[in-house]
Design a protein that fits this description.
This protein is an alpha/beta fold. The protein folds into 2 domains: 65 residues, Double Stranded RNA Binding Domain (2-Layer Sandwich), CATH 3.30.160.70; 79 residues, Winged helix-like DNA-binding domain superfamily/Winged helix DNA-binding domain (Arc Repressor Mutant, subunit A), CATH 1.10.10.10. It has 5 helices and 6 strands; from the N terminus they run E-E-E-E-H-H-E-H-H-E-H. The strands form 2 sheets. Strands 3-2-1-4 form a 4-stranded mixed beta sheet, with helices on one face. A two-stranded parallel ribbon has the order 5-6. Strand 2 and strand 3 form a beta hairpin. The longest helix has 11 residues. The radius of gyration is 16 Å and the shape is globular. The N and C termini lie far apart (46 Å). Pfam families: DNA_binding_1 (PF01035), Methyltransf_1N (PF02870). One of its GO terms (molecular function) is methylated-DNA-[protein]-cysteine S-methyltransferase activity. Keywords: Cytoplasm, DNA damage, DNA repair, Methyltransferase, Transferase.
Length: 168
């Protein structure tokens, strides 16, 4: 059964959705994490059962991250979301260290899609269903400018500031 829970954050109320018993331990594997104002965030609750305790471990990690005490998440994601290309891009994004950034072009090179593939990489990053915990906010333009973010550029800027990744 698909469930959801909310977590208060400095960015507003986050909506976490997942599948119960999607793990061998019988817990809830995270399917999506939405930020306020994100396209589809309001619908994330539709047809799902509220399960406030389903993501308590993830909520604790998020609170620690937002307070500056956690730099690397340890979260089990539900399998199967995204195309093969999207999953390759998302894995490359997951490898960007806390407090660092990478350009869309650099991600394209890492997944073997340099050149014209930069646009496809941007599209794949834009479809990341796990904002914050899969750190697509760490991907910036080649010129250092902040470019699109499903949670909005102010949220991207705030997250990069929290991590100390913004150039002075």
């Amino acid at each position: 059964m698909t469930v959801y829970a909310t977590v208060d954050s400095p960015l507003g109320e986050l909506v976490l959705t997942g599948e119960e018993s999607a793990t061998a331990a019988g817990g809830t594997a995270l399917v999506s994490l939405s930020l306020p104002g994100q396209k589809g965030a309001a619908e994330a609750r539709n047809g799902r059962r509220l399960a406030p305790g389903a993501f308590e471990e993830i909520a604790e990690q998020l609170r620690a991250y937002f307070s500056g005490e956690l730099t690397c998440f340890s979260i089990e994601f539900a399998p199967g979301a995204g195309t093969d290309f999207q999953q390759r891009v998302w894995r490359a994004v997951e490898e960007i260290p806390y407090g660092r950034t990478a350009s869309y072009g650099r991600i394209a090179e890492r997944v073997g899609a340099a050149g014209a593939g930069v646009r496809a990489v941007g599209t794949a990053i834009g479809r990341n269903p796990l904002l914050v915990v899969r750190p697509c906010h760490r991907v910036i333009g080649a010129d250092g400018a902040l470019r699109g973010y499903a949670g909005g550029l102010p949220s991207k800027e705030w997250l990069l500031g929290l991590e100390g990744a913004l150039a002075p």
